[in-house]
Every structure is written in C-alpha cells, then in structure tokens.
Amino acid sequence: MDTERQCAPEQPTESKPEGKARGADINYGIDDNPPWYLCIMMALQHYLTMIGAIVSIPFILTPALCMRDEDPARGTIISTMIFVTGLITYLQATWGCRLPLVQGGTISFLVPTLAILNLPQWKCPPDDAINAMTDTDRTELWQVRMRELSGAIAVAAVTQLVLGFSGLVGKLLRIITPLTIVPTVALVGITLFQHASETASKQWGIAVGTTAMLTLFSQVMGEVPFPGIAYRKGHGLRVVWFPLFKLFPVLLTIAIMWTVCGVLTATGVFPEGHPARTDVRLRVLQDAEWFRVPYPGQFGLPTVSLAGVLGMLAGVLACTVESISYYPTIAQMCAAPPPPLHAINRGIGIEGLGTMLAGLWGSGNGTNTFGENVGAIGVTKVGSRRVIQWAALIMVLQGVLNKFGAAFIMIPDPVVGGIFCVMFGMITAFGLAALQYVDLRSSRNLYILGVSFFFPLVLCLWLQEHPGAIQTGNQTVDSTLSVLLGMTILVGGVLGCVLDNLIPGTPEERGLVAWSKEMALETVQANDDLPAGGLAWEKSTFDFPYGVQLMRRWKWTRYVPFLPTYRMKL
C-alpha cells in the first residue's frame, strides 16, 4: 500500500480554465471536473443546503391552500418543487448562463402568493366546514387554488422570458449599478433573518452548535489534511490526504448535528413533539409514496386572472434583478471570467422558462437563483459546474423517489436554523461586497446607500403590521400595491437604481468603470474580420457545450442576443 500526501484531491489532466487567473481562492473552478465520487459528495452538500429552504416553502404554502396537515399531497408538492428545481438547474448550468448556480423555489414568490390567497374569493372556509367535507371536496378545495397560482405564475413568467431572450435585459444592465446591486442582494439576507431566527430558536443549543461547527470546519480546519484510502490500477491501495473539512463543511456539520439530535431523541432528552427531535416529521416519511413522476397539469388545467398575474409579476421582476445581481458575484467566486452579455440574457431567459414550468407543473412557486447555494460556494470554495449538474440529477431522482426526499425533510429545524445563520449572513456580505466598486468617501453614495437600506425595512415592516392600509377602492390595485411595496428587495433595489441614476455623480464615483469590467459589457464591431465566437476565455466557459462551431459559420447568429456568437455593434 502506497502512502501519498496531497493537500487537495487529484485534479484532472485537462488544462485549467483561464478564469483561474482572476486569483480566486477556490478548490475547484467553474470548468474543473472533480472525480465522480467527490462530485457526488459535493453535489449532495448542495442538495442539503437547498433542501431546508425549498421544503419550508410548501409548509408555508399548503395551509394557505386550505390543505390539512395530514394530507399526503403535501409530500407531492414538495417532490414537485424539487423535481422542477433539478430540471431547471441542469438547463441553467448546461445551456443557460452556465454558472454553477441552483435554480429553485423562492420566498420572493411566496409573498405575492399569500397576497393572492388572501383575497376574499380564495380565503379558506372555517375548519369545521373543511372537516365536514368529503375527501373529494377537500382535494378540490386546495387544487382550485393551486390552479389559480399555476396560471398566474406561468403567465407572469412570460415577461422574464421576453426580457432574457430578446436581449432587453442588456438594456437594464446599463442602469443596474453597484448601488442597485448592494441593497437588492444584501436585503435578501437581512429580510430572511426572521426565518433563520424562527428555526434556530426552536433549540438554541443545537442551532449555535451547528453554526460553531460549520465555522470551525470551513474557516479554522480548512487546511487540515484528512487521510483516505484510494485505489489506482497498477498501484493498488494507497493512503491519500485531502482537505475534508474544506470540501464538505456543510455536509459534515449536518451529519454530525443530526446524529447528536438522534442521540438526544433516543435518550429522551427532547420530549415528544420537540422540534429538535429526529422523528418529529416521521409522518411525512410514512405518507410519502415510493415512486411518482410529477407532470404538468397534475392538479388540473391552470386558470388565469388579472389580479393573480399582476401580483406574480412583482415576484418575477424582483427575481430578475436579484439574479442579475448574483451572476458577477458567482463568477468571481468560482474563478470564472465576468459573464458576457449573451450569458446574462440566456440566464434570465432560462430562469423565466423555469418559472413557467414550475407554474405549469403545479409547484405553487417560481424559480430563482438560490442564495443559500451561493453562500455554500463561498464556504466550500467549490465552484465546479459539474458538481451542480450532479446536484441537479440528485434533485430529479429525489423528485421521483419520494421516500428519499422525505428522509432529508426530517432534518431537525434547529440544525437548519444554524446553517441559515451562516448562509444568510454570507448572502448579505456578498451584497455588501459590491461596495468595493464605489467611492465610499462620497457623501452622495453614502446617502443613496442609507436610504435604500433603511426605508424599505421601515415601509415593509409597517405594511406587514397594517395589511389593509392601502385602500384605493379597487381590490386588485390594493393587492398589487401591497405586494409590490411589501417586498424589501424590490423597494430597496428600485430606490438604489433611481437615486443612483438621478443624483449627479462621476462614473468613477458611482463605480461604473470598475463594474463594467465585472459585467463584461464591452461593445465590439460586428464585421467579417472579427471572429464570432468571442474572446478566448469566453469560448471555454460560457459557450454551449455543443454546436458553437456550427453557429460560427452562420453570420446571422451574431445578432441573436442569447447565442454565444452574439456580437454587439458599436
């Protein structure tokens, strides 16, 4: 048996991507292909990071749909959301913007969803009336509401499709500046603190232990080598040393703290019904089907109403700005070049397609870039596209094998809350990182930053405490305004964008010069002498995996905004 010390897992023999030159401190860059067994482990880590957030959405959504707690359809909705998340994540990572991001359900759509279901015609009847219904009537009670949400989400997603594939999102990039990005992204993490608090407070000891262990593994023990056994043909078994704690801090933390909760459950430390018990969601596991393939229209033909579409449109617009904010951040984190315009256009278009499919499939939600997984990349420093593709495969399989997903749903809430404390904090920090481009000595920039942060928190909190405050005489308008003005990320992003573009300031002061380099919005002459494939690094990172050589033969593809051969005219 050979003994070999290696501080990082074996790297493939292929050349490293040019993005490595950006100097990002990562273990695997966007174009790196880790060994398959490491891919599966790291993909599972992304799945576990995502599952806590995506599962929380149906648990908030189903009561508003008038669905009883013991209804096995709750598991069907959860599996549908994860199944669609896997499909769209694969499309996005492979054919969309090609960044290693996860596309899944989002709280941004939950806000307009609850506003729609709060309309008089969709309010739930009293519990006594529901209990007196037959099983068929109770099923129709929640399915008719799901059909309303499905139609609203699918139609509203057309806006995002048009923005992306038409290239109009490129026009938006001219006004989406760092002072727009900062409040939009940072307020995501700040707004989510309540969700982290609610889950962590169910058992603070477990939650704090989870946060402390994740910090220890990812920040303190990251360089500590761990022994493992590998086999190579011709060399036999050998001991290899690799950075276990740096590669799998989230997975290790969840496994250890889940085991701790299991021991405390078995010994009776946690009483029956305690949220930190590992058997608190055992009913979900028992009711879950072994095998079921979700399909479009599984709850009936979607219906469409103006109030529903306008409400969901707010969620679509907020998600568009949020995703645009994430793209350059993710690219930098995974040592990729700045995303070119065609990749951004394609990413928003694929996200719109994902939201439409999520609506038609009956998930009751749309899709958006998962901030939690953006945080996971920052913690693990693994930004490989191949890992995300494996994660998408796990999600699709879990969406079909319901028992598999139900097992992970049993992760105790305090463990998830401890993970959220780290992940949501990192999302906020990533948003604030865009301040590196602007001049913080400028009183102009400080004013915009302060107003765009503080005012949304004040306004949205007041609207939550006074839900009927907006009275225009038109219920549809009231509901739409309540949804729009109740979203901190939308209000903060719009405020930052408007103020930054209206208040005079130099390009250097506003950070536009440095930001333009990150967004890669260079304009080039589209003529016969210029190769249609783009810059050299762009070819290997953001091009389609197949067919680009054929596209270069057709000059008309240079004018299609979402193709890798797209060239902008001077």
UniProtKB/TrEMBL annotation:
Say which domain of life the source belongs to.
Answer: Eukaryota
Q: Cellular component per GO? A: plasma membrane
Membrane-spanning residues: 35-61, 73-93, 149-169, 175-193, 247-270, 299-321, 390-411, 417-438, 445-464, 484-503
Regions of biased composition (Basic and acidic residues) lie at 1-23
What is the membrane topology listed in the Swiss-Prot or TrEMBL record?
Multi-pass membrane protein
Keywords, in A-Z order: Membrane, Transmembrane, Transmembrane helix, Transport
The protein here is known as Ascorbate transporter
- Name the source organism: Anopheles gambiae (African malaria mosquito)
**Top-level taxonomy:** Eukaryota, Metazoa, Ecdysozoa, Arthropoda, Hexapoda
